[in-house]
Structure formats: structure tokens, C-alpha cells
Amino acid sequence: MEELDLAFVEETVKRVGSGKEKVLELLQAIQGHYGYLPNEALRRVCELTEITPASIAGVSTFYDQFRHRPAGKHIIHVCIGTACHVKGAESVYDAFRTHLGIPEGEDTDAQKLFTVERIACLGCCTLAPAVQIDDVTYGHLTRETVPQVLSDFLKHEQARAASPTKSHGLRKGKADPRGEVRIGLGSCCVARGSGKLHGALQEALAQTGLQVPVKRVGCVGMCHQTPLLEIVLPNQSSHLYARVRPEDAKSIIQRHFGVRGPHRKLSNAVSTALDRLLTDEKWEPVTRYSIHVRDQAVSDFLGRQIH
Question: How buried is 100 (Cβ within 10 angstroms: 0-12 exposed, 13-18 middle, 19+ buried)?
Fold first, then answer.
């Protein structure tokens, strides 16, 4: 067996401290680095600090966040909260184990690719039964959709590895004074695709040359309408777009903020025309997703909110 590199433990003790009260912080750091609590690392902590083996045993067995066995590369958290339990979470949990060939008494597949764990609540009750694989959330699962979810996640990982996320943050002092874009990134929002939409917005702003702030907001309280975009313009009512797809982001940005410069306008027009010509999906105008803020139900919900 390969010898464990304990340099991280030594560096962490120097950074965090060696007092008895640091036991929880040190254990969390070790698990975050190794994926579990290796015995060699725990012994080294005791050698370098005032922390005793009994203290480590007490803390690491009390909190279920800690593992004493190696985990797979990816962690599958199956929510077993009330809503998910009622909707069949245990059946979904069993389906993941069966599909991955995990034997009784184990929680990780033979390839050490996936570890399957139950979790008390993911906070995505409207998507029950919900599952989170690393930072990607899936909703409305059934036994039959488990293979499809795993396949989708692996494709997502391959795409992310091939195309590292680029940062298109605002340059200081260059923000567009004409308004801002707000996008909900609560748990349900992300599970329904708001994370991908956020990335598409950043790409659209980079392509159009606009420096419009994109503000992350928490739960929007309209889970059934997510991904939800709010365009806020000075001295105007907000413009809301519901169930927005990533491919709609650029059109929405153009509608409300335009495109800067003749070169970008020409380039953007050509790009848009090619997108419509070459796509294998029927193009639909973004107006289809617009929500009228004066609608009684929307007005009653949003009218009293203060940003």
C-alpha cells in the first residue's frame, strides 16, 4: 500500500493550531483533503498537538460528516428528508447501490468512483426525491432514471474538465449604469438549471462586451418557475423571465442592454444568424418565458419585497 503523505497534516496543524479545542477544525480539514480520516493522519495529529486519541474518537464518531474508510471520487447524497422519503427515496437509494454493484455492508463501488450515502435534507423539497452528486443536484428521480442520472453526471464532468470555467467578472469602474441582472441560485434553482444559466449569462456578457452586474440571490420563492431571471432597469418595473434555458441568455441580454460598438454588433448579428441556421432545435423567442409583474399572483408575491 502506498505510504500516506502527511505533509498536509503538519501544514494544517501549523496553520490552525495545536490546542485541544482545535480538534473539530483539524478533523474537518483532514477529511476535506483526504476524503476520509486516515489512521496515519490521526496518529500524526496526536503527535503534533495536545489532542488525545480519545478526543478524536469521540468527535469523529459523534458527527456523521466524518468517514473512517476511503470514499469514492464522487459522493452521491440521496436525500431521505420527509418529502423525499414519501416520494420513494429509499427505492432510489437502493437503485444506486444495485446499479453500481455495491455489496451489503459497503458504500463504495469496486472502481472507487462513487460512494452512496443518505443525507437528512438537501433543501430541495419541491424536487423530491432529490439526489446530489458532488455539487450537481438532480430531482424527481425514480429507480428507472438512476442510470441516466449517472451517465449525465459523468458527461457533465467530462465537459467541465475539457472546458475550464472562465471568469468574466466586472472590471472595476466599468459597470454598466443601465441596470443589473438577478438570478436565483438557491438549492431548487440550481437543481433546475440556474447554475448553467448563470454561466451562460457570463458568456453572453463577454460576447456582447457589456459590463452588466449579475447579482446572485437566494431562494426566489417561486420554485415552479425556476430558472428565474429578473432584469432590473432604472426607473422601470422589473422584467421577469421564467424557466429560462441557457441558450436564451444572450437574447435576453440583447433585448434589455443592446450590444456595444459597431464591430461587436456586426459580429453578434452574424453569430446569432448562424446559431439559428445550424441549431437542430426549433428556435423560440424569449418572450414566451416572460412573466408580467402586474399579474395579480406575481404582484401580490413580489410587490412588497424590498431589495
Answer: buried
**Nearest one of 232, 158, 247, 236 to 201, comparing CA atoms:** 247
- What structural domains does the chain harbor? 7-62 (no CATH), 74-162 (3.40.30.10), 180-302 (3.40.30.10)
Output DSSP code: residue 146. H
pLDDT mean values, one per 10 residues, the chain (307 residues)? 84 95 96 92 96 96 89 93 95 97 94 94 86 87 94 84 52 58 82 84 85 83 81 82 87 80 50 47 46 52 53
CA distance 229 to 132: 23
- The amino acid at residue 302 is L
CA 187 vs. chain centroid, Å, equals 8
DSSP E strand stretches across the chain: 74-79, 114-119, 131-133, 136-138, 180-184, 214-217, 229-232, 239-241, 290-291
Contact of 227 with 193, CB cutoff 8 Å: yes
Tell me which residue has cell 452574424. 270
Quick one: cell of 109? 463501488
